[in-house]
Amino acid sequence: MSLFLSRDNLQELLGEKRKILVTGGAGFIGSALIRRLLSKSDAKIFNIDKLSYASDLRSIQQISKSISNFDQRYEFIHLDLCDFEKTLNAIDYCKPDLIFHLAAESHVDNSIKSPNEFIKSNIIGTFNILESVRISLKNYSSFRRKIFRFHHVSTDEVYGEILDNSQFEETTRYDPRSPYSASKASSDHLVKSWFHTYSLPVILSNCSNNYGPWQFPEKLIPLVIKKAIKKENIPIYGDGSNIRDWLYVEDHVDALLISSNKGELGESYCIGGNQLMTNLELVTQICSIIDEINPKPYFHKDLITFVPDRLGHDKKYSINASKIKSALGWENKVLLHDGLKKTVEWYFKFFSSQSAN
């Protein structure tokens, strides 16, 4: 039996919501969400994405043969949300009952080197879709306005860093410390203000570090796996003592589906795995898993190389997910070691197939 939401449970959650739009659906989390919606519901799915360097539609294309009416239920729209007119036209065309807004630039290192794209994508893009939705909803019937939801997906990095044993909660003061987290904090504030000022039916969530198959290999876990497979140095910032809370992407998809449909309008929900580990511990565990899967006459952890620390590197993130657990009944299912093993095994097959081609 599947760990995650069943078809019956998901159909019940969605209720009368027949058309769902996902922004950033060619990204890691967005594509996982779309795959679940296509395989476990009957909804029509629209995927808006500008197709940046980290975009990948292959995971959605791979399941197309297993979805009998895929061409009728899935539509991709190549669009940059920074273009207001095209965004408005797209919302008018799709007329969604539910929007998951995941489109965002997300790599902290890139935001430090070139913050301009993060300001445009994460702030202007969010403003444009909020305004487009506000305008388009005027043409909805009273029933469809009643069931409509806009779910804004954000990050725990908006809260800054933790220097003690506390945890981030929905009431934690915002304290972003990188151009990326500042741009996401700005987008959160925009969404909340559209709820209070215009009564836009929004729900927000802030998640911890996601991992799993199909993540672009600039992120820590797939980067480590790729470097280890190629017998290249595995870089770790500073002394590797920075701590993160890790969440398997399919657990996050469950949380998004539950909170978007059962959550209280205007509320925020912190989503975390409650699985803390230093970067050095995490990388060492990945290397141990690779040793088991692909034994070599050396230990993969010997490839670890410490590099100068990232500018403004937050010391620790930790999420208290008690609100979404108590109010909505969500709880993560995948233990970190099990999720890492699944992820390592998947990337071994993925990188091997790439080499063969």
Summarize the structure.
This protein is of the alpha/beta class.
C-alpha geometry: globular
Number of helices: 14
The Rg value, from CA coordinates, equals 20 Å
Strand order of the largest sheet: 3-2-1-4-5-6-10
Mean pLDDT: 96
**Helical residue percent?**
40-55%
| Span of the ends, CA to CA | 35 Å
Number of extended strands: 12
Q: Output the structural class.
A: alpha/beta
Order of helices and strands: HEHEHHEHEHHHEHEEHEEHEEHEHH
* Unreliable sequence segments: none
Strand percentage:
15-25%
* Main sheet overview: 7 strands, parallel
Describe the structure.
- This protein has helices spanning 7-14, 28-40, 58-62, 70-73, 84-94, 108-113, 116-136, 142-147, 179-198, 220-229, 249-262, 279-293, 322-328, 336-356, and strands spanning 19-23, 44-49, 74-78, 98-101, 149-155, 202-207, 209-211, 234-237, 243-248, 268-271, 276-278, 304-307.
- It is of the alpha/beta class.
- The strands form three sheets. Strands 3-2-1-4-5-6-10 form a seven-stranded parallel beta sheet, with helices on both faces. A three-stranded mixed beta sheet has the order 7-9-11.
- α2 (28-40) crosses α11 (249-262) and α10 packs across α14 (336-356).
- The chain starts with 6 loop residues before the first helix and ends with a helix.
- The model has no long low-confidence stretch (mean pLDDT 96).
